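QA checklist item 7 of 12: single-chain prediction sanity check.
[x] sequence parsed
[x] length recorded as 429
[x] structure emitted
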Amino acid sequence: MPTNKPTGRRRATPSRRLPATTRPKILTLAAFLVVASLVAGYLALSRPDDTAPAASAGKKPSAAPKAGATPSWDGKTRVLGDGSTSYTGPQRGQLKAVPLKPGEKPPQFVVFSWDGALEGSDHLFSHYRDLAKQYDAHMTFFLTGIYLLPKSEKSKYHGPMHSPGDAAIDYATDDHIRTTLEQLSLAYEQGNEIGTHFNGHFCDAKGGGDWSVQEWKSEIDQFFSFAEHWKTNTGFKDIPPLPFDFKREVTGGRAPCLEGQPNLLKAIKSYGWRYDASSPGDFQIWPSKKKGIWDFPLQMLPYEKGKYQGLSMDFNFLYNQSDGETQGDPAEFPKWQQQTVDSYMAGFNRVYYGSRAPLFIGNHFEDWNGGIYMKSIDQVVKDVCSKKGVKCVSFKELADWLDVQKPATLAALRSLDPAQSPDWSTVVK
């Protein structure tokens, strides 16, 4: 675990009206980390130019595409390729997406997502898979492709703009490849989503922000290659195939350091992906689409009782609390942990009792500051996933639900400010 301090600075965010009772001074973080073994990256918080405004006054909402029909299945398992993966039918236990009825209050969706999805010696992948099962929740696990590629075979990875085998993160050990494969199978079987965190985790110069559309496609193709040929690459013959087809199941991802979304959006269209979680950050508003793809950004939450707004991810708390040091002053750990829980709950309560906009929380499997950010998520999962009207779902399930809503309903939902609690009969018609 690196201990070097990330660079970055606070900067003002674009203004958006919040109700007076919830209008703190909005400041947020520019430095950002999006994998546990890397402390680097720069994040500029701004609403991209092609993002639809919250209220599209005077414009008729465009028709929303519908979720694809579930293909028929003959009940037979089909082993694919070299035996690394298989098709076992449509994923079971998924949220049934139905349109809201007139006047119906939307569910409070909460999405917990994890960047990297490695089952290491800390067993955090299995811990959160178990926690999700305990609270009838589904989560999104973004797999890094080279975590299924042995270090001895690293020359097979050709990261865009980099030499063969280069990566900004460590390759997994053979034992950790084995345990990660086990967790991927169990996570899928329990209804969780497997998405992509791509491969080499390059940031800044020669990272995703510099990649062309074709270079992003190369990164995506290599992700699929490593995921679909782990048996060939590892030589493991005693592990059964994963119970899903990556090309069917992967419908979105999150780019390392949240860089390169403009070209990434152009690249993923040809793969039929339905969402992207790589936006640098936004307010707690109902999602819209960019270039026909659902945009699921990290969100700004009230930090330190509303003194400023910071992003809904563990690294941002780390940056604010210990100036980016992964192990700060232990005497401060209890206070920082409570601050983190309070911020997540403040963001949750703002929309739960307000607009019901989905809450997005992104994290890593890490032990920063004594593991307080992991302990915070443990508490938040227990506190929110058991509440009435709350559905803790994956990004894919949320996309399914959004796709079956009336365009006019979605437009009305997007016009709400986070803490605004409307007369639902005027919103859902």
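[x] summary fact logged: The chain has a mean pLDDT of 86.
[ ] second reviewer sign-off
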